[in-house]
Amino acid sequence: MTARTSQTPDAVRAARVLRNSAADPGVRFRDLFAAEWIKLWTLRSTRYVLGLGTLLFVGIAVQKSLGTYQDWPSFRPAEKAHFDPMTEAFSGVTAALLMIGAGCVGALAIVGEYATGSVRTTFTAVPARHLVMTAKVTVLAVVMLGVGAVVSLATFAVSQAILSGRGIGLTLGDPGGAHVLVANALLAPISALAGLGLGALLRHTAASVVTCSAVLVVVPTFFKPTVHQWVNDLYAMFPNYVWRTCLAMRDPRDLPGLPTTAAAWTVFALWPLATAVLAVLAVQRRDL
């Protein structure tokens, strides 16, 4: 991955759009959205991570489902009774890779501008930094929500098509499947906005990527329910943990120490909001 922005006609177009928006405040946000859209797709890392990443996730789902299809006759009755076909589509490994990749895209969306100095051009053309960051947050959320939806639906479609050969595949109408698909899709925008917030705060490519990966994936992976409820409540503030222990399940367990479904969805709603505010405030209040 790279944080460099190339001096392509796309970059020139983005600068032109910014100048036009500064001259006509009535269409500013629409033009800022267009400029941020161009800038995001000008980053080569965006195309590589999203394109190759989507293919990787589909490939993992195919490989995992084919393995289960072949081994199904040798499964013991207890294993068959507790088998969840959704795990073949989107496993914990897939979720971790998606969160890291999306977080990197979000971090590079802002760190790349600081690395090249183009952020000065942007804020010279449009001094209202909060409007620029709001447009950047909106573009990133829209793009990554689309990517998350494609990954969630594509992995589900290919895995269940393979498993249906054994009569164990699911459809979109089966109970519990829809909310898992939505939760899987939302991991991408949540992680991308977390990366954007950390990138705006740290302004360093390596530090932003490492911190983002640690906060989103590495540290929460080691969380286990304990007898101390305040610790469980702390764990339940991390999207990876609530996804793994609640939202990734078609029939979430209702046990002490585990997050409830309502609390898990609340975490999914608050993380992008909090990290978007962090990104706007970090850019608004600090010198370039």
Overall average pLDDT: 89
Number of helices: 13
Total E-strand runs: 0
**Largest sheet entry:** none
Poorly predicted regions: 1-7
Q: What is the H/E order? A: HHHHHHHHHHHHH
* Radius of gyration from the alpha-carbon trace, in angstroms: 21 Å
Please describe the structure with a list of short key phrases separated by commas or semicolons.
single chain; 288 residues; mainly alpha; 13 helices
Task: Report what the structure shows.
By secondary structure, the chain is mainly α. Helices cover 76% and strands 0% of the residues. The radius of gyration is 21 Å and the shape is globular. The chain starts with 8 loop residues before the first helix and ends with a helix.
Summarize the structure.
This protein is mainly alpha-helical. It has 13 helices and no strands.
Describe the protein's topology:
Layout: H1 9-23, H2 28-42, H3 44-71, H4 77-81, H5 86-89, H6 92-116, H7 118-125, H8 129-163, H9 177-202, H10 205-221, H11 229-235, H12 239-247, H13 261-285
